[in-house]
Amino acid sequence: MRFSSTLIAAAALLSSAEAAYKGFNYGAFFGNNQAKVYNDFRYEFEAAKALPGTNGQFTSARLYTMIQHGTTKDVITAIQAAIDTNTQLLLGIWTSAGQTIVDNEISALKTAITKFGTKFTNLVVGISVGSEDLYRITPTAIANGEKNPGVQPAQLVKYINQVRTAIKGTGLASKPIGHVDTWTAYVNASNSAVVSALDFLGVDAYPYWETQHANSIGNANATFYDAYKQTVKAGKGKPVWVTETGWPVSGPKQNQAVASKANARIYWEDVSCSLIKGNVNLFYYTLQDIQYTTPSPSFGIKPGGDLKAVSPNFDLSCPKVSYTAPFLLSSLLSPLLLLLMYNLFIVSWVVHAMLSALSTEEPLLALPSHSPQPVAPSNWIARANGM
Ligand SMILES: *[C@@H]1O[C@H](CO)[C@@H](O)[C@H](O)[C@H]1NC(C)=O
Ligand SMILES: *[C@@H]1O[C@H](CO)[C@@H](O)[C@H](O)[C@H]1NC(C)=O
């Protein structure tokens, strides 16, 4: 039927035009320093896609390193897991530990390109060279007890150029290169050479930690958007991706910021939902952080326990766009407008229905008998052991 195929085409166009990346941050190891292996990453990526209330939208993963934890330069097993679960990747190159480690990161990146080819490169949405390294060298970070050395801006520019050279002529050549840092790093004029070297700016913003400001949950949305807008300004037209943000579900009070599930829900509804609506790339922090440790504060959407079995700590749905309000309002205005609104309503309803039908997730590949593990007394099991 021509009508419906046109609609499908329109819906497909609409969905590709609307494809901002939505995902989480995935560390390379658990809280006890145990390396995550293929099954762990795969389990996490599948759990993210199956989160209730999110329509399967969280299909992207930000990594901090290309290196499998505990090895010198083996490719991180998250890559194979991403390929097998069709998860988009914001790659990370760790730059807070010197040139030798960066060399190893680049070596692993090249190995992944050679080993996996387009199966890998087609999933890559960007490469972040570094993560909060400029923040780490500031007096604020050092006063906050930061122990990682970070990196000077001139050296970071060198690393960025090394990665650019490494991907030249490969399947990653056209992928944007960015860096992740705090808004304070981007507005700092001493770091302007870094901004100039980037294709996009990744910003990590946590109103909870903004203890110098009025940082209650009531101000959190405004505080977040202030950081975001400062970064946009510093970027001088370059895209800004939200690479980390979140509100803790538990932990100590920071100035006026109270960590609680209820406040995390408010933060999600205000900040995450508005970013999703505004089509901004978003990597929330985080899916689950109670994994063989008890972090305080804890930012996990999911509590401790078997990641797929436990329910989220708070509702992850976003407010629905209302069609009735403008529709009713229009009837007060003019009959013609009423007709127009009515037609728009029908079309958007049909497109929405088509989109939901199209986005129906394929059944997850069957994994070798995974049965939910009983939650250990310590409440720390993050995955199905023995998978
Ligand atoms: C500004 O950036 C420079 C270079 O990264 C850094 O040394 C300095 O501490 C930063 N200043 C502040 C106030 O953060
Ligand atoms: C959050 O801030 C943004 C940017 O200023 C604004 O558009 C949005 O309406 C705010 N949301 C809430 C719930 O205050």
Record the SSE blueprint:
Blueprint: H1 2-17, E1 22-26, H2 38-49, E2 60-63, H3 78-85, E3 88-93, H4 99-116, H5 118-121, E4 124-131, H6 133-136, H7 139-143, H8 153-167, E5 177-181, H9 183-187, H10 192-197, E6 200-205, H11 217-235, E7 240-245, H12 261-277, E8 282-284, H13 324-333, H14 335-358
Parallel strand pairs: 1-2, 1-8, 2-3, 3-4, 4-5, 5-6, 6-7
Helix pairs in contact: 1-14, 2-3, 4-8, 11-12, 13-14
The structure holds 2-acetamido-2-deoxy-beta-D-glucopyranose (2 copies).
One 2-acetamido-2-deoxy-beta-D-glucopyranose (NAG) is lined by residues 221, 225, 270, 274.
Provide mean pLDDT, rounded. Answer: 86
- Record the strand order, biggest sheet: 7-6-5-4-3-2-1-8
Q: Provide the CATH top-level class of one domain.
A: Alpha Beta
How many DSSP-defined strands? Answer: 8
Gyration radius, rounded: 22 Å
CATH architecture of one domain: Alpha-Beta Barrel
GO cellular component, one term: cell surface
EC number: 3.2.1.39
GO biological process, one term: cell wall organization
Protein name: glucan endo-1,3-beta-D-glucosidase
Could you characterize what this model shows?
The chain has an 8-stranded parallel beta sheet. It has a domain at 20-284: TIM Barrel (Alpha-Beta Barrel), CATH 3.20.20. It is built from 14 helices and 8 strands. It has helices at residues 2-17, 38-49, 78-85, 99-116, 118-121, 133-136, 139-143, 153-167, 183-187, 192-197, 217-235, 261-277, 324-333, 335-358; strands at 22-26, 60-63, 88-93, 124-131, 177-181, 200-205, 240-245, 282-284. The protein has 387 residues and is an alpha/beta fold. Helix 1 (2-17) crosses helix 14 (335-358). 42% of the residues lie in helices and 11% in strands. Mean pLDDT is 86; it is low at 356-387. Helix 11 links the parallel strand 6 and strand 7. Bound molecules: 2-acetamido-2-deoxy-beta-D-glucopyranose (2 copies).
